[in-house]
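Today's session is about reading a structure prediction critically. Students often jump straight to the picture, but the first step is always the sequence itself: look for stretches that repeat, for charged clusters, for runs of hydrophobic residues. Only then move on to the predicted structure, which in these notes is written as discrete structure tokens rather than atom positions. Here is the chain we will use throughout the hour.
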Amino acid sequence: MLKVLSRMHGSCVASRSDFWNGIDFTARFHRPSGALCQKSAVKHTASDLPQMPHCNFRPDPYQGMTANQMLHIRQHNCNPMTMKVTSYKKPVFIQQGHMQWLWDVDGKRYLDLFAGVATVSVGHCHPKVTAAAEKQLRRLWHTTNIYVYPTIHEYVEKLVALLPEPLKVVYLTNSGSEANDLAMLMARLHTGNFDIITFRGSYHGGSPQTMGLTSNMAYKYPVASGLGCHNTMCPDVFRGPWGGDHCRDSPVQTYRQCSCPADRCQANDMYINQLKEVFATTVPSRIAAFFGEPIQGVGGAVQYPKDYLKEAYRLVRERGGVCIADEVQTGFGRTGSHYWGFQGHDVIPDMVTMAKGIANGFPMGAVVTTSEIASSFSKGVHFNTFGGNPVACAIGSSVLDTIEEDGTQEISAKVGTYLLEELAKMRGKYEIIGDVRGKGLMIGVEMVKDKVAVVYAYACDRWRF
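Below is the predicted structure for this chain, in token form.
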């Protein structure tokens, strides 16, 4: 699967319809499980490639350790997991970035379509954000939130202004895993219930608790984790049992045909029945929460039928649970049509978790919830040394300003829709492309071995590019 996630800016964006065919790019290959595969980088001869789009920025000459030295240290001194997740048989040795561009140690330029795993929200080393970080580093690097300092309050005020009522109370963390872990705790404390439901194929983090939410074999270990977590069938209208040609909120639909009336999605009804089956057979009559990404990220940029989350939220709340939107990948305008992914489903969750693009790559995360749920958290004492760090808040505040000033959400909508429509043309041309899906710059392209014979089930043996 190819995730197209970079926000493109200014004069560095070419207007030619075939510009991205001629650009070296960073991408990742995944198995259907979402696990990273080691594949070689895309190769073309020089004569095959159109001219690289112009960029005025010039990187600093690289004078650090050699690629061989870095690889030796990576293989012998870094945890083996670091090498296991390294992309490509011949790794890319990145040394500098500017906006949508990356440069390796040999000075070769790349278009970053992966955005640092959906994290670089306004561009690598954006000048405004970099200036904000430098200014704060000269003033105060660190103190904890047991003291009162300006940046945390300035940031929180800006953030809650971007969320609908009653989502107005923030707790800052350092990562998405931390945020989701904390949301699980808050949900259980508030409801007095324990069981939590999420989608199959989901990814919500790698901590001992969030590993239970993460429904993906590649990220599981043979140890007890995430007690009380259960999953329901992901309402994937491409590879799931049900789906049609107008299910998704996307410029591109699946090839699958359906006979649904204009005002009713039968696929949605069937996937909701699967959730009801979980309620009837797997969990107690009262539950703590339902977790869902507005668009599945690691699971494959999967979009659900348009009304699924609306109906799922109603059923969860009937059983005493709270609804949690994991916006770690979809938030901050990435989907183009809305600032938050949940808004595209016409729902308001009880909690929102966020990270990645929140600070353009600086470690930061957040849980935003209602005052009522937040008050339940005060039954004990919770402390996070680095959550709400002054530098993180200064950077996060600048990111929010930059998204508005640069029109980043609008760029996601315009460029993303263009890419989706052009990729859809390639789907019609090449048998290996089974599906193109997504919104804004949250895009997935799924490769199949045989488009005609593909079986819409999780057990299909096929690659995603």
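Discussion point for the tutorial: DSSP finds twelve helices and 15 strands in the chain.
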